[in-house]
Every structure is written in C-alpha cells, then in structure tokens.
Amino acid sequence: MTSLVSIRDLTKTYQRGPEKIEVLHGINLEIPTGDFVSLMGPSGSGKTTLLNLIGGLDTPSGGEIEIEGQRIDRMSAGQLSHWRSQNVGFVFQFYNLMPTLTAQKNVELPLLLAPLSAADRRRRAEIALQLVGLPERGKHKPNELSGGQQQRVAIARAIVSDPKLLICDEPTGDLDRQSAEEILALLQSLNRDHGKTIVMVTHDPKAAEHATHSLHLDKGTLVEQVRHVA
C-alpha cells in the first residue's frame, strides 16, 4: 500500500521569549492511503502540533513532510493555502460553523473560491449533506441543530471539495456518547466506503478504537503504534 503521508525527522520548535521549546523531536511516520489514524497522548505531547503540520496549518522547524509526492514543508504560505483548499478537509471540536448561515451555505463555503456556478455549489452541498445523513436540514441554521447534527454539517463542509485527507481535531470532544458514536461511525464510513484517509486527534480510547490504528505520542516523541483488529 502506498503512503499518502510520509514524515521524516520532523521537528517543531517554538520561541517563547528567550526560551526555545521543542514540541516534536525527530518524528518518522508513514500513513498509507486509505488509513484511519488516531493520535493519542497526554496533554502537551505534541498531538495537535503534529496534526497541524500534516494539515499544512503550520510549518516544521526541521525535517520533511511529503503528502502524495508533494513536499509541503517547502511551500510558501500562499502555496500552502492553495494546497489545503485542494487536498485537505478539516473537522474541529466546536464545529466552527457560521451562525448566520444555513447548513447548506456553511457547507458551500470551501467552494466559494472554486470556478463553480451557484447551482453547482448548491448541488455539491446537497450531495455532501446527504452523505452525512442530513438531506432535510439544509435550510436550518446551526442554532436549530443539535450538537451531533452541527458536527455532521461540519463534516459535510470538510468533504464537499472531495479532499483525499481529513484532519479531525477532537471531533467528538463536545458530544454526548451516543452522538459521538454516530460521528465516529460516519468517519468510519467515509474511510471504508469512500476512501478518505483520516488523521484524528482524540483523548478518548473508545474513539481511538474506531480507527485502523493508533499512534501514541509522549513528550514530542512517537512511542507506540497500535493496529486495531477490524
């Protein structure tokens, strides 16, 4: 199986006043195309930093990040922005929906810079909402939806551009257990049935079990990889 993500000797250091804080120490990692990976570890272990680097939201201090043959660590800020819009969908803990827009208009947001007509944007948003099980909620605003439904809208927004990679930062962290299980089942379906490669940060061991394998970080070092039995 070919790797979608290849990481070599990755480091990340932040400058805080006169002090340098090294968050990641020489990470080496291969994520195969079509995998569903959970990133776990204690607070401060570097999970979100690694997630942001893979998603092109941040740049490394050293090492290489290659995604589908492209060295994103060499890209400028403008190149990274364009690359993200074409290749990555993001799902966050608190949904990050625009409160004044309907579900459908929220889903359309990533398409606004694409050379598409309004009708094409609407059609793609309707398909994405149907895929996440909310075909009848397109005209509802976020405050008219439950937390689980809002997260489904956020996932529809993440997949509307048909990206190869989904980056999920604690996608069930603000949900009750039943809603969390439904969201995790949806992510599994996107992975298994639609070929999305998913990288998910979570503190929840039960959530991690829905992934094909888990990576454990501790103090900026990859300490363990666990493959889950299907």
Description:
The protein has 230 residues and is of the alpha/beta class. The chain has one domain (3-227): 3-Layer(aba) Sandwich (Rossmann fold), CATH 3.40.50.300. It is 32% helix and 30% strand. The strands form 2 sheets. It has a 6-stranded mixed sheet. Strands 2-1-4-5 form a 4-stranded antiparallel sheet, with helices on one face. Strand 7, helix 6 (177-194) and strand 8 (197-201) form a beta-alpha-beta unit. Helix 4 crosses helix 5. It is globular. It starts with a strand and ends with a strand.
Described by strand count, sense and barrel closure, the largest sheet is:
6 strands, mixed
Share of helical residues: 25-40%
Residues in β-strands, percent: 25-35%
Number of strands: 10
* CATH fold call: Rossmann fold
CATH class: Alpha Beta
**Overall pLDDT:** 92
User: What is the H level of CATH, i.e. the homologous superfamily?
Assistant: P-loop containing nucleotide triphosphate hydrolases
Pairing-aware structural class of the strands and helices? Answer: alpha/beta
Number of domains: 1
**Envelope shape:** globular
**What's the CATH architecture?**
3-Layer(aba) Sandwich
Individual helix count: 7
Please state how the strands of the largest beta sheet are arranged side by side.
6-7-8-3-9-10
